[in-house]
Amino acid sequence: MSKEASNGDHNSAAKAPPTPSPLRFSKFFQSNMRILITGGAGFIGSHLVDRLMENEKNEVIVADNYFTGSKDNLKKWIGHPRFELIRHGTADFELCGNVTEPLLVEVDQIYHLACPASPIFYKYNPVKTIKTNVIGTLNMLGLAKRVGARILLTSTSEVYGDPLIHPQNESYWGNVNPIGVRSCYDEGKRVAETLMFDYHRQHGIEIRIARIFNTYGPRMNIDDGRVVSNFIAQAIRNEPLTVQAPGTQTRSFCYVSDMVDGLIRLMEGENTGPINIGNPGEFTMIELAETVKEVSFNLSASPPGCESGLVYFLSVAHCFLLINPEVKIISVENTPDDPRQRKPDITKAKELLGWEPKIKLRDGLPLMEEDFRQRLGVPRKN
Ligand SMILES: NC(=O)c1ccc[n+]([C@@H]2O[C@H](COP(=O)([O-])OP(=O)(O)OC[C@H]3O[C@@H](n4cnc5c(N)ncnc54)[C@H](O)[C@@H]3O)[C@@H](O)[C@H]2O)c1
Ligand SMILES: O=c1ccn([C@@H]2O[C@H](COP(=O)(O)OP(=O)(O)O[C@H]3OC[C@@H](O)[C@H](O)[C@H]3O)[C@@H](O)[C@H]2O)c(=O)[nH]1
Question: Is the ipTM of this complex over 0.95?
Answer without folding.
Answer: yes
